Amino acid sequence: MLDGWVPWPEAAAERYRAEGYWAGRPLDRLLRDRAGSDPGRIALVDADGGRWTYAELDERADRTAAGLRRLGIGAGDRVVVQLPNTDVFVVLFFALLRAGAVPVLTLPAHRESELVHVAETAGATALAVPDLLDGHDHRALARAVRKAVPSVEHVLVAGDPAEFTALADVDADPVPLPAPDPGDVAVLLLSGGTTGKPKLIPRTHDDYTYNVRASAEVCGFDESTVYLVVLPTAHNFALACPGLLGTLMAGGTVVLSPTPSPEDAFALIEREKVTVTAVVPPIALLWLDAVEWEDADLSSLALLQVGGSKLGAEPAARVEPALGCALQQVFGMAEGLLNYTRLDDPGELVTGTQGRPLSPADEIRVVDEDGHDVLPGETGELLTRGPYTLRGYYRAPEHNARTFTDDGYYRTGDLVRVLPSGHLVVEGRAKDQINRGGDKISAEELENHLLAHPAVHDAAVVGMPDETMGERTCAYLVPRAQPAPTQRELAAFLTDRGVAAYKLPDRVEVVDAFPRTSVGKIDKKALGRRIAERLRAEAGHGTSGPLRAEAGSGN
Ligand code: OOB
């Protein structure tokens, strides 16, 4: 068994098994089963028109698993995976599971700062990257990771490997491999993070398989499902809610889009007669506008899942008339708990709530600042535990002590209220995180990077309201001396430190001192109000709308 993770207490585990939530099967079996029952059905289609049947995908996974074992990658090894939405990701994911290794899933946007930390925390022995992606050389990134994290022995490259191993050469005749223990960790997901460094989320074969199966049921996935992956495959939403894994489990077809742009996605929806896809709200907004000028035939689309950040009731109501498909809101987290509006929910619940818990075994509490349950219908912090919600982050005992209650509830940091129907409305956030249209940015992590700049005396990162993204990132700075670093200088500095582009501050505000709370902490609520007021004033004067704030005040 992998060490450093927190299993469910035996009584809970027994209950989840006895009640059938945990089926005792390894996660990769969902592919094996379909390869047995529907070998000739198309499982996977890529943007270039590459197509693989269930049997072909299954065999490729077996061959790659054998190739991994030959390299010495096997039981319990952690392998950091950073790959775009291609067949290579899908094959490698299943191959790693079959080899007994644990994929550690990172986003293509992550850079040295994130990858080094993740590889180090995971104690990774291998890293899989593309050669080039959007003009960035990921082999150079791999070199930096290897230098910083000596446990990383192997670098596997999709494409031209340079001095490393080509993924195409990780191939051998299939060999029988021992099945992993279904109670063990299958995959490590990345958390959005509220602390200085991102955290790793252990998901077991049992819990993740249940996550996928129950999601596929609630979303009505079956053999006729054609699911378009537009978010990164490494994101829990696109991977398992029900996502690509749910589609394969149901015997449907997965279509991979390289980007979420309307040009790419709409063309694939038309070409492959896509029936369902999942997006974050800014993409939904973009698509709602794009149908005006894109003339692709979207008539096959039956369901649009939207989640990752809050979708406003107004755009929610536009989905059905504009795109001609039903809307489903999804309020989920890589840590576990998933809330879905149901396909037969009345319209006002679909547009006005973020859904209700997936599982009858999900336990939720809504508490005030002292940890006491609020009255029904009142807003408070959401706590949860259940058959697919983690009991602790990987190798993070101190953080776990703060983030979980003594009886195992995960403190989500989300402020919600619960309607009599059981549906949740997300009202805000108690955690120190910015949700930039679904991309999560830990304020503390970004502040630490900013504090490393020689001209920065102190830094406080807050969200600022934004019509499209929900919010964007504003960094308040107290400089050491004048002139203070500009937004551009800071962006270059952070990029140089290997910080992912989506974490760069959208705006920088320079102040002499921070407002303080009565106990002397930086008063971030006051800073949040200050920037919101400032944006309102600027919009009033017509100098800069929230969107144009991205260019920033320049200083
Ligand atoms: C999804 O997962 P993560 O891990 O990137 O982020 C989780 C956090 C939640 O705690 C919440 O703060 C926010 O993202 N969130 C939403 C939301 N969905 C997620 N806030 C408001 N409304 C929503 N619908 O984002 C994720 C994972 C699986 C499925 C869907 C989303």
From TrEMBL:
Record domain AMP-dependent synthetase/ligase: where: 32-394
Gene3D superfamilies found in the cross-reference section: 3.30.300.30, 3.40.50.980, Luciferase, Domain 3 (2.30.38.10)
Pfam families membership: AMP-binding, AMP-binding_C
CDD domains according to UniProt: 23DHB-AMP_lg (cd05920)
Domain AMP-binding enzyme C-terminal span(s) in chain numbering: 445-521
PANTHER family registered for this protein in UniProt: LONG-CHAIN-FATTY-ACID--COA LIGASE, NONRIBOSOMAL PEPTIDE SYNTHASE PES1 (EUROFUNG)-RELATED
Name under which the protein is recorded: AMP-binding protein
Organism: Streptomyces cylindrosporus
